[in-house]
Write a structure and sequence with these properties.
With 117 residues, the chain is mostly helical. It has helices spanning 12-26, 31-41, 43-47, 51-65, 71-83, 85-93, 95-112.
């Protein structure tokens, strides 16, 4: 696990995605262009059973915060949230942090299903 805590952005991949996403937006790329570049750049992580959920959670969270959540990104994040594989991974490694992660993921699901700013 390339993470140092249960919060969404306490993860190397999560922070890399966030920084890349924001940097490309600052360069004038559109949300769709940035999303496509991220999907191309992070194919290995998207194919990984542990990292795929982190990729989609972070991308959905970032897009929602900016009022630009794309339907396919939302659908992918919600799919991983409903499957629960990310939480199971935490439960196997650290029960205390798993409780925190569970709350983080519940909040994310609620957020993604609410109106964007």
């Amino acid at each position: 696990m390339a993470s140092w805590g249960p919060k969404l952005y306490q993860d190397d991949i999560a922070n890399d995605i966030k920084n890349y996403y924001i940097d490309l937006l600052k360069l004038g790329k559109t949300n769709i262009e940035v999303t496509n570049k991220l999907i191309d750049r992070y194919q290995e992580e998207i194919s990984d059973v542990d990292d795929a959920s982190v990729f989609w959670f972070v991308l959905a969270d970032l897009q929602w915060d900016l009022g630009n959540l794309l339907p396919n990104v939302k659908e992918s994040a919600l799919k991983f949230l409903s499957e629960g594989s990310n939480l199971r991974r935490w439960q196997e490694e650290n029960q205390k942090e798993a409780k925190i992660r569970k709350k983080i993921l519940e909040d994310l699901e609620q957020k993604l299903n609410s109106p964007m700013p």
